[in-house]
Amino acid sequence: MQSFRRYIRRIVLPVLLTIWVLLLLPGWGGTAHAEDAPSISLKTEIGYNGKMKMGSWNPVKFTLTSSQDISGDLVIQIDTGLAPATYVQHVELPKDTAKVVIMGVPGDNFTKDTNEIRFYKNSFQKGKRVSFSSGTPYLKGMPVTASNVAVLSEDPDTMNFLNVLRSSGYDLNVLPLKGTDLPEDPMLLDSLDVIVLNRFASDTLSKGQAAAVEQWVRSGGELVLAGGAAYPKSAAAFEQIAPVQYTGTYTASSLPELAKLGGKPLELGGELTLSDASPVEGGEVMYQVGGKPLIASRQVEQGTVLYAAYDLSMEPLASWSGHPSVWSYLLRDHLALSNQPNNKFNMMQNQMYNLINVLDYFPSLKMPSFPVMAWLLIIYAVIVAPVLYWILKKADKREWAWWIIPLIAVIASGTVYMIGAADKTKQLAHTINMLELDGKGNASEVSASAFFTPRSGEFTIDFPAHTYLTVDRTNGAFSSSNRSNSFVEVGDQSTRLTLSDMPQWSLAKVWSNRRENRKVGQFDVKIQLDAKGNIGGQVTNNTSYNLNHAVLALGGSLFELGDFGKGETKPLSAASKPTAVNPYNMANQIFGNLTGGQADEFTREREILMTTVPNTAWYQSGSYVMAWSKDPLVSYTMEGKKLEGNQLNLWAQPVSINWAQNGNLNIPFGFIQPKVTQISSPGWYEDPSGTTEMDQGSITFEYTVPALKQGASAVLTLRANNPGKKTQYQIFNNDKQTWDPVTWDATKQWKAEKNVQQYLAGGRIRLMLTAQEHVQLKLPEISLKGAEKP
């Protein structure tokens, strides 16, 4: 015992003391290990000026500073919307250097409970999670549905006059930005509706930023280039898409066309310096001063570039009371009304959820035949009961039933399983594409896909570069949860979706967004209207595909064109007799009525026409060509292999009609759709059929028509089939700057045959409707006849 104690004192205690001392030294033990671990601070900024838009993709700026050189994945896990998803970006963090990382997130309500920001050393799949030493590891923000007008200018107050429009029912934000705020990915501009450059040196933008803005325009954005004498520096980076070519400057002491457009007197109090320019090919001069372009526009694929010859921040124009009205009209397609049911957000959300639901009709996956399953059940019941009993009784082996019946049950179950799984043995895809053609060879595209996995496990799917994904997961055959992990990595080469923990026989649905147009060709539409408004003409399929079930909607009439081969021309005289468009039942007009018990091969088309098409701008325009095809327009790879599947494509192109007939304009009723621009009625609503519902109050609406030849005779007619009870209509007189009463005659028409120009300001006809009580009605139709402006 004593020898043992001496051993402890002489050997063990010195060793333990030495270890304890070493643990206290730098580089040893727990304290040193903590110092070896990287320390990462985090700062976040969401949207533009803190404004995040619902239904759009928004940039998030992460500022990361690490105490060590470290490589890893920055991830943000979001648990809102359709299903949880994690967005991933790989980053390299140099020691003690702030690194800015920009990622895109869908606009939603972000709180501590709906998202989390993480960092994984090396990779999110196998790396160790590194906690943040400072900063809030989640996003905070409430989304808006307002229109966002971004302004880059030397004067940050430029375009603040638009805020006045809020009192007229507009829902908008004016966002002064710096050049460094613009990303190099066009999808991260998705939450902006308008970008204004006024006295801003656009050539200070990087090539990537300028390219992103241009692509944003091509896919539907609106860019305004202005600045007066400073216009050249505003347009420097965008000369290829500008409506005009700059030639110098000039001065003007009055702007009469602008005054008419604004509906208010305009006194400049001196001379104003403007930029002088000439229109380029594709540019259209909308308003002039002294024969020179004052406002010009140019359609660039799906988007628009506007030119203003003056400095938008210069007085007295900046504070002129008519200025908000001018720009509410010029930007009318991109400014949302606060209680407008068909705003961009509602339309996109409805499209997404409706297409996601249509994906449930997976053509490659079929339910087992009911008659086959019924016969299997009958055969099983007959064999197990009377037949087996008779055989065993005959052989005097009834005790064998204890093992024969279970064996037959196993065989029957296996047979049922094999029948049910016959078409569920490989990965499949089901995609719906909606293409809107611009009539010049390009098309914007909305896609939704469903991916079927026959086995459980992890799957990777590769999409084109800069594709942004919203993911929905459904239960598998042997799963009780849809909260599986979905990881999205957006990259310059491709976008990768990793689906982990996928149950057997399960679906992952994906809504994909890209701000890049597709080259597909166009429909060439030539329409003639005679003096009585009868429609003639032809439609040519100059797309790259053979189409079917094609129709032409025009002025409330539907012409069925049927199968429409590539390069084929169809005269309207050969089309079926036109019928009135039924906004609630167009599917039956095109695909026929269903009878009881009849199998429907057009289930998907009917669902899309009923739920998704009414939420498109081209449908609401009232005049368009629409057709279908099943060609494989998009391709995906899963686990490195091309994915087989079905695709259904909807083709649509708005139709613009040349109203000039031998130098005269002849616009019949029903072809020009009114656009509501101001609302002072809390209960205003307009459904797809055109029926307006409103409470006590007023609305202002406009018709856009071609300009008439000055001094030529013309006739303007309004027709109100259902003007509503206890309502009053007025039309704006641009010469008097007053509202003239509109009184309906016995046929519910109102006509102006003298001095029609007083009601037109650059093709803008404005009316006001006032209701004394809740009412349902239809806004008037317009007819215009006269000589075309040369």
TrEMBL record:
Residue stretches making up the DUF7408 domain: 191-312
Keywords from the named record: Membrane, Transmembrane, Transmembrane helix
Gene3D superfamilies noted in UniProt: 3.40.50.880
Membrane-spanning intervals of the chain: 372-391, 400-420
Database matches in InterPro entries: Class_I_gatase-like, DUF7408
Pfam families per the UniProt record, alphabetical: DUF7408
Protein name: DUF7408 domain-containing protein
Native source species: Paenibacillus favisporus
